[in-house]
Amino acid sequence: MFSGIVSLAVAKEVAATQLEAQKIADGHYTSGASYTFTYDISSRGKIAGDLEEFRKIVAETYADARGWKRAGVTMKEVQSGGQAHVILASGDQVAAASPGCSAKLSCRVGSLILINDDRWMHATDAYNELNVSLANYRIMVINHETGHFLGHDHILKCEIPNGLGPVMIQQSTGLLGCRPNPWPMPSELWVRR
Ligand SMILES: [Zn+2]
Q: Would you say the pTM of this structure is higher than 0.90?
């Protein structure tokens, strides 16, 4: 019986090692490694937001030490032809980009990081009800959609109730019991490209 328990523990250990190896094979890497991508800024459709302000806030968010930079990511703005296209887009243009996108929300489609102009200007009920500033919402939505570009899927539950929400929770539609947080959590500091 004793050896049974030991071998179960060993089996778990092996499984964890294999998982780690698989993660590395899949291209996950964490803080300490480095990855640089170029991006350009543009708009689509009729927008109410100021594109120059948008450009500035995206650049500040990407340069912030609390952001994806902590995962070793450097983002460099270029005039055009970036690896990612960060776009302030009208709702109809977001919806037109892919059947998986909604006119009400922001969306990432391949290299397109589409920020919904209506959300950019007015955030969401979930955020406004909690009196979170529009400035914080904007940082959250940039980091969330960029997180998809970096290989992150949604996080579907709040691990620590009333704790800070991972940026990959779909905070625009609900906090799932977590508190709003515009920056990636330590557990989210990896990239899969
Ligand atoms: Zn998302």
A: no
